[in-house]
């Protein structure tokens, strides 16, 4: 019984993910995030420090994604100013070895080089995912191995360490890290997600007033100054990437709401522009990024953040930038928890509904799934949506 259900669900995913492809007669972007921070997707905690197990797990992930029709992965290679690739600038990642340290003594292989070889052999693009400003997770100390230049640019917010986006040394360092990766690896894209300035915490102002006072650059409003800090790094990264390798793309997967809009019924607890200081619309309008993947991790009909309203909003405001949508298989749940976590996610057909809606919007050119392990988990009752698809 279990085997037949697994086969049925696998068939469902193949149908779901190829449905948009078949209906338009052209290849869509179909990707999955592989998160490495805290060992979310890879490597497993059991594989930390074990090269053969790490490689075996990655091959399993890539083979599974290929079987689902995926043509891209977004592979997290710099979660917290560390590296899952050979680097002379930043230490080997804690999530690979169990402790941070130098590459020469701790890692017998280069994970990024391994992933590139295996993914490209399967016809899968590799978009390398970097978190630009985050130095640690919450309640983690700043590692001894963190470069002195970064320590001089660090501030602590909500028990977490970040690089100060207003510091020129921060911007120079990030550009140097990206330049190093682009110049040495056969990657398909540089990718950054929604973590720019920290997610706001009520009653905790950002500790960057001294940086602003020291160099306001003509801005009378600190919020405009913060947005300009992020605008500057995005513009500079675009220049760095395309000057080294014009074929390498630069993509961003922002939080799903740009700004609240009462006329459209969009009302989120925070937004890109006003809270994360990420003016994503400007980046698309100016051509500083090659694609955008808004994280629309809500269901169709959700009050304030209705998936359908937001999908149309991004389509109407993408300014010709390639638009893919970030979907949330991690939200699929078993029926007993439906009341607490959202009934729309309890039967498995919510993602099918979203795929169909996306296919009806010409500007949407693909999807990306967060994240790989939930995508491959085959949640119970997911096969229910086959009946909906057949109708």
Verbal overview:
It is a single chain. It is built from 16 helices and 10 strands. It has helices at 2-24, 51-67, 94-97, 103-106, 111-121, 148-151, 168-184, 209-214, 222-244, 272-276, 280-286, 307-316, 338-341, 350-359, 372-376, 385-390; strands spanning 29-34, 72-78, 125-130, 154-157, 160-163, 189-192, 249-252, 291-292, 322-327, 364-369. The strands form 2 sheets. It has an 8-stranded parallel barrel with strand order 1-2-3-6-7-8-9-10, surrounded by 4 helices. Helix 2 links the parallel strand 1 (29-34) and strand 2 (72-78). The two termini are 25 Å apart.
Mind sketching the topology for me?
Elements: H1 2-24, E1 29-34, H2 51-67, E2 72-78, H3 94-97, H4 103-106, H5 111-121, E3 125-130, H6 148-151, E4 154-157, E5 160-163, H7 168-184, E6 189-192, H8 209-214, H9 222-244, E7 249-252, H10 272-276, H11 280-286, E8 291-292, H12 307-316, E9 322-327, H13 338-341, H14 350-359, E10 364-369, H15 372-376, H16 385-390
Helix pairs in contact: 1-14, 2-5, 7-9
Mean pLDDT: 89
* Share of residues in strands: 5-15%
Radius of gyration: 21 Å
Main β-sheet description: 8 strands, parallel, barrel
User: Can you count the helices?
Assistant: 16
Helix content: 25-40%
How many strand segments? 10
What is the subunit organization of this protein?
A: single chain
Find the structural class using helix and strand composition: alpha/beta
The order of strands across the largest sheet is 1-2-3-6-7-8-9-10
